């Protein structure tokens, strides 16, 4: 599909971002600051999905064209994180990718996996405990460092039993960026596999799989990739993939040319090269055709430009919230920052709602005025993407200021923290 964004517009200038925004009808419905929950759907993705559904409705599905879409989308995703298409497979979601990778390792009893249970999303916790129950390995959890994953604590926790370290590149709350490349270098040096949960980073942060020295990267398509739930990608580094035996063996996971219904020699067929061995049965075609135009747009925009624009919006928002006297978790923007800004100072355990009366009052005021955001871990979470602009910041900040003015005493309680 041809993207109508002119090549010449793809620069880090307002007209380009204006053109991008115009392709997200939902962007004009009030500031949409909830990428971390899910993105607005990219119009071109929806058009591609409609065409796919139309073809299904009238019985005109071209299976060959669907397989071509699978391969071109695999290649697009590989370009996005700068690796080879053979290093990419399709998954259902982040949990699925982590479980597929983890269960393909030949574990020995007593092996360990290092994670930070306090900060990781359940998607990067449960699968490891599942693997622990099944294979008798230990999950070693390091403590959080005031809301940050501690590089030092993770490295200290690695010993001769450690096979895998699993971290998120950007946490879902408080939304801090983790220095993945520094951990990657240490893991590679010590022969430990590094899995990165890129659910919050994909499509926003400028990711380079080689520079991260990651062995596996998992992501899904409903956030930074601006598409649907139920589809994910997994990168597995070629040399590592060749050593893994996926829990499922499937027609698409073996090295066989020819029709999908052709049965080769299931007892001895070689695995498909690299991460392709993790592909299972027919693909999520609706998800794949929907995400392709969004990845194409991100590649045209350039990941450096995207990161710089989106992180820039979040930085400005954080500074303006701080200037109003409200606490931003982590303080002034710095190297820990991302596209996520969390407001509050108590990292708790509540999601979607909060027992903190003032926080809830501010959340309700913003929601009633069509500012879309979420509550995670007791913090108000605002998150930005390429469809946002300065006017979203102005509008959201104005409603926060209005709430402070109207709720003098409540606001003072919140700003005191
Ligand atoms: C860091 C992180 N990992 C994983 C997920 C989701 O995992 P899954 O795709 O398995 O539902 C999210 C949010 O939805 C997340 O923020």
TrEMBL record:
Residues 68-394 form the Aminotransferase class V domain. Keywords: Hydrolase, Lyase, Pyridoxal phosphate. InterPro entries: Aminotrans_V_dom (IPR000192), PyrdxlP-dep_Trfase (IPR015424), PyrdxlP-dep_Trfase_major (IPR015421), PyrdxlP-dep_Trfase_small (IPR015422). It comes from the Bacteria. GO terms for molecular function: hydrolase activity; lyase activity. Pfam families: Aminotran_5. This is Selenocysteine lyase/cysteine desulfurase. It comes from Paraburkholderia silvatlantica.
